[in-house]
């Protein structure tokens, strides 16, 4: 998350006070998905936020559903023992909320059904007396198909259904829903602020929302969805001048080869992923975002070679990429390209109408995002680490102490970069198609940290190696991620001969990967490290699931290189 822009005596931001967002809705309505997404966004803003889930607390205290009385999930008449269990769970969960506020928390998202007017009124009055602003957040799904999709994708993998067949789990969960429907009362309490989301973002209704932070919550919820999509991240190819931020140079010959290999690998990997899900690749569009820097958007040019570029508005053919991009060889002078060969900012790529392709060609849309330019190194531009340390010793010491917050003269800090990227985060949440982001290491670090939920101090330590494709699939309880290695050529590793500035990387941008210094996650200090080992295996993958728990543990996953040559994710846990 991004650190707050400012601090206050109370620790609460935006003069918003304390807020409890109370979710409302029948089971399997996407409440958990919405809650976790909102938590991630508010934490990014620097707001101390936590999801407290009644279901998670119940499982922690009482175990899975198989350990509970049969009438626990019914809303009719219950045995005294069941009433006592439910009351204890509810009281214990509310005590957790109070404790979080007492420890300086600002926003709690209370993830529970809260399906009756009486239950909501009691809860609202309790926290209103404690000077906590109450907002009801109701999630409604209008079709059984959407509900069943939620059940199959999330609920049947719950600990409640351990050792239960999927069909039995689905049947049992439907019975829970049918029972809740008998007693469910939609939100009509206009005396309390409420937000009603229909079909996870298809439509939104708002009542009595007040203040800046509450409005930001509504704005975010207007841009989310729960459709399955995959987000890929890859660095741009090697450029002719690597060490300079100001020199917006084109790709080197190796950079063009890298771009061609990336295209082949991404399309191959995506086709396999779609096939495994039973999805026709012709029915799914791939959206590519690049920065406005030449090395980034030219890395996307090989994707043109398989399609005809068609401008969305005029449907007129866009300029073709250079012949060298189509053939995969490097152009004779790649740093000098006519403006007429610059692709439009936004276009859709479709298969040629007259020429049948031997294999299906995916629909591709490429968009330049100027906000995704790499971090600005200021006066450190073009310097080696030793030169920066020699010329700016005081600044260097501050940099080592806090790489996230440090700002070199006339430069950006990582915090500045995170603030600049906030509009990209909103568009990232809104995008429903598969997405490939071709950008710079600093930008990818920030976006990954947002998706995974890493604390701000860990962002500069995330190693993003050129030649790795990072695959992230957002899910209800976090994200699933994999790393694939596809390139071992020039530009993957920093050239330690710092006298050759044309092959040296911008160290301010590539500090985590490409210098003799490494950050130890969680310590806030930087120490010398051994040089990275060469990478030999071309298609090894590593997979991990990132889950956001309510216990405030932050898990930092960094893709590193293993002595045996395959990708390894190193895990750091901060209490």
TrEMBL record:
- Every copy of the 6-phosphofructo-2-kinase domain together lies at 13-227
Checking InterPro entries in the record gives: 6Pfruct_kin, 6Phosfructo_kin, His_Pase_superF_clade-1, His_PPase_superfam, P-loop_NTPase
Q: Which GO terms describe its biological process?
A: fructose 2,6-bisphosphate metabolic process; fructose metabolic process
The GO molecular function terms of this record are: 6-phosphofructo-2-kinase activity; ATP binding; fructose-2,6-bisphosphate 2-phosphatase activity
Q: Which Pfam families does its entry note?
A: 6PF2K, His_Phos_1
- Identify the stretch(es) annotated as Disordered: 314-343, 517-558
Q: Where is the composition biased (Basic residues)?
A: 535-557
Report keywords, A-Z: ATP-binding, Nucleotide-binding
GO cellular component terms given for this protein: cytosol
Q: What is the protein named? A: 6-phosphofructo-2-kinase domain-containing protein
Q: Which organism is it from?
A: Clathrus columnatus
């Amino acid at each position: 998350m991004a650190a707050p822009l400012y601090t206050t005596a109370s620790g609460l931001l935006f003069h918003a006070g304390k807020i409890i967002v109370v979710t409302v809705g029948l089971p399997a309505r996407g409440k958990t998905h919405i809650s976790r997404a909102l938590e991630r966004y508010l934490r990014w803003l620097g707001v101390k936020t936590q999801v407290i889930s009644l279901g998670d607390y119940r499982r922690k205290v009482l175990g899975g559903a198989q350990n509970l009385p049969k009438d626990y999930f019914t809303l009719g008449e219950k045995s005294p023992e069941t009433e006592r269990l439910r009351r204890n769970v509810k009281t214990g969960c509310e005590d957790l909320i109070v404790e979080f506020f007492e420890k300086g928390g600002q926003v709690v998202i209370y993830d529970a059904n809260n399906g009756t007017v009486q239950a909501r009124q009691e809860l609202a009055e309790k926290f209103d007396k404690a000077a906590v602003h109450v907002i009801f957040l109701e999630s409604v799904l209008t079709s059984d198909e959407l509900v069943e999709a939620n059940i199959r994708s999330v609920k049947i993998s719950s600990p409640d259904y351990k050792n239960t067949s999927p069909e039995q789990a689905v049947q049992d969960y439907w019975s829970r829903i049918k029972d809740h429907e008998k007693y469910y009362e939609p939100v009509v309490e206009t005396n309390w602020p409420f937000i009603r989301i229909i079909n996870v973002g298809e439509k939104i209704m708002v009542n009595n929302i007040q203040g800046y932070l509450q409005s930001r919550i509504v704005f975010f919820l207007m841009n989310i969805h729960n459709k399955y999509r995959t987000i890929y991240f890859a660095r741009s190819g090697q450029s002719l001048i690597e060490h300079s931020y100001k020199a917006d140079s084109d790709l080197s010959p190796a950079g063009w080869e890298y771009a061609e290999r990336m295209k082949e690998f991404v399309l191959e990997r995506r086709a396999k992923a779609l096939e495994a899900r039973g999805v026709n690749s012709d029915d799914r569009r791939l959206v590519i975002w690049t920065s406005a820097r030449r090395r980034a958007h030219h890395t996307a040019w090989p994707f043109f070679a398989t399609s005809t570029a068609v401008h969305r508005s005029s449907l007129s053919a866009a300029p073709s990429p250079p012949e060298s991009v189509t053939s995969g060889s490097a152009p004779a002078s790649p740093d000098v390209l006519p403006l007429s060969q610059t692709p439009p900012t936004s276009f859709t790529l479709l298969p040629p109408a007259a020429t049948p392709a031997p294999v299906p060609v995916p629909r591709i849309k490429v968009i330049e995002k100027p906000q995704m330019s790499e971090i600005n190194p200021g006066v450190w531009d073009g310097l080696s680490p030793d030169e920066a340390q020699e010329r700016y010793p005081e600044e260097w010491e501050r940099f080592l102490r806090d790489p996230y917050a440090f700002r070199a003269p006339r430069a950006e800090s990582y915090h500045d970069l995170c603030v600049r990227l906030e509009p990209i985060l909103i568009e990232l949440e809104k995008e429903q198609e598969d997405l490939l982001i071709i950008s710079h290491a600093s930008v990818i670090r920030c976006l990954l940290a947002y998706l995974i939920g890493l604390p701000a101090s860990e962002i500069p330590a995330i190693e993003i190696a050129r030649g790795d494709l990072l695959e992230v699939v957002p899910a209800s309880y976090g994200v699933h991620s994999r790393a694939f290695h596809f390139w071992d050529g020039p530009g993957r590793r920093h050239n330690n001969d710092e006298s050759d500035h044309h092959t040296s990387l911008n160290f301010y941008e590539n500090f985590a990967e490409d210098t003799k210094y490494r950050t130890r996650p969680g310590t806030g200090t930087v120490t010398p490290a051994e040089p990275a080992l060469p990478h030999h295996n071309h298609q090894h993958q590593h997979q991990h699931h990132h889950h956001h728990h309510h216990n405030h543990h932050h898990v930092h996953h960094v893709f590193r290189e293993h002595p045996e040559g395959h990708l390894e994710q190193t895990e750091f846990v901060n209490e």
